[in-house]
């Protein structure tokens, strides 16, 4: 049986909208598992991408090149998405994956209704000289700690670090070798989410996502660091619902 990428923790195939979430570097589908309980079946169905080499795909080989990951995702998603309204949501590395995939799907005549980017600068700000994946385990841990104090848990739990560091190193390799292609302007709006103390995404960079679409791009900021998406989950979901209400009046206020 061919492995699949999407995880549906609360299936709702009759929902008017499908939200596909792309986790950050080192992350698995469980990072977005709580989201499935925060949308009801009259609002949206939530699907989360599970990259190979982690969680329930632990025994599978990693994918460490963006073109290979995009091709595999495109093959699966283009079959699932025809005839269905959908939104792509990506955090950090997942934002780059979601944006690249949105361009591919639009070229296939399957454009998303909305692209939601969280904690990720637009392609013109993609760093070309980052080499974190070549560093020692300690250097990778230092880089993670700069993103969020919550990553201190990896220092304090060596067994957890031993399990996760190969995944994190692989994903850093993927995103650091990634070279954005010339942008194909999207026909859908872009919603940008950022943490007020996120060193990975300045306000100027967040606003620059406007250059990637022919329509509106809006920026919403939240208290917190690079992982505000977890610490501010309720506020983030409430804002997402407010924006997505334009596609379905069934979205609740909360």
TrEMBL record:
GO terms for biological process: lipid biosynthetic process. Keywords: Hydrolase. Gene3D superfamilies: alpha/beta hydrolase (3.40.50.1820). Pfam families: Thioesterase. The keyword Cell wall biogenesis/degradation does not apply. Belongs to the thioesterase family. It comes from Serratia symbiotica. The lineage of its organism: Bacteria, Pseudomonadati, Pseudomonadota, Gammaproteobacteria, Enterobacterales. Residues 20-244 form the Thioesterase TesA-like domain. It comes from the Bacteria. SMART domains: PKS_TE. InterPro entries: AB_hydrolase_fold, TEII, TesA-like, Thioesterase. This is Thioesterase. GO terms for molecular function: hydrolase activity.
């Amino acid at each position: 049986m061919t492995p699949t990428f999407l995880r549906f923790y609360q299936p709702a195939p009759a929902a008017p909208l499908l939200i596909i979430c792309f986790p950050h570097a080192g992350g698995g589908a469980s990072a977005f598992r709580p989201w499935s309980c925060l949308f009801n079946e009259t609002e949206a169905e939530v699907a989360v991408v599970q990259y190979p080499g982690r969680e329930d795909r632990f025994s599978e080989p990693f994918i460490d090149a963006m073109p290979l990951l995009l091709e595999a995702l495109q093959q699966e998603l283009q079959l699932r998405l025809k005839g269905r309204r959908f939104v792509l949501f990506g955090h950090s590395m997942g934002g780059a994956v979601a944006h690249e995939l949105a361009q591919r799907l639009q070229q296939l005549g399957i454009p998303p209704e909305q692209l939601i980017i969280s904690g990720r600068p637009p392609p013109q700000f993609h760093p070309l000289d980052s080499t974190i994946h070549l560093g020692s385990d300690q250097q990778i841990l230092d880089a993670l700690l700069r993103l969020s104090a919550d990553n201190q848990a990896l220092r304090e739990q060596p067994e957890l670090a031993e399990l996760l560091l190969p995944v994190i190193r692989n994903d850093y390799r993927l995103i650091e070798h990634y070279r954005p292609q010339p942008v194909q302007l999207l026909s859908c709006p872009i919603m940008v989410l950022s943490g007020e103390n996120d060193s990975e995404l300045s306000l100027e960079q967040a606003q620059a996502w406007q250059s990637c679409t022919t329509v509106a791009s809006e920026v919403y900021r939240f208290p917190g660091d690079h992982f505000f998406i977890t610490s501010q989950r309720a506020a983030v979901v409430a804002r997402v619902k407010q924006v997505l209400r334009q596609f379905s009046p069934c979205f609740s206020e909360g």
